[in-house]
Amino acid sequence: MDEAIAENASLFLLDLNFGPENSIKVVVDGDSGVPLSECIRISRNVEHNLDREAEDFSLEVTTPGATEPIIDLRQYKKNVGRILMVKTAEGNFEGKLVEVNEKEISLNWKAREPKPVGNGKITVEKQQTIPLSEIKQAKVKIIF
Fold this sequence. Notes:
Layout: H1 2-6, E1 11-19, E2 23-30, H2 36-48, E3 58-62, H3 73-78, E4 83-88, E5 92-100, E6 104-114, E7 121-131, E8 135-140
Parallel strand pairs: 2-3
Antiparallel strand pairs: 1-2, 4-5, 4-8, 5-6, 6-7
């Protein structure tokens, strides 16, 4: 399977799970998404390297769902510019992912706050840098 994923440098393995009754589930993602043809190619590669006559198995090659949490640094990088919902021990944040590195992410958003002088509110730009180690869950917000 490593060789099948290595054939396309934009792909990366998220999960490989061996379940009951010889079920195999492979979850892959790509820097620019994963076309169905790549899932088929990976499935065929894995299947050709296993012997069904020696041991029967079921094989599923899939991509993460739109509502699945982000679990890999490359997933953060491919989602720069999108709105994320991030949970940490300190609280929840929702903002546009503007920067990612090996240690942290940065979110930007607009908020309404009271004016420093006088009545009323003003819109201000907010930014939060969050260490990857402190993120309990991060998901892309789906906007229709």
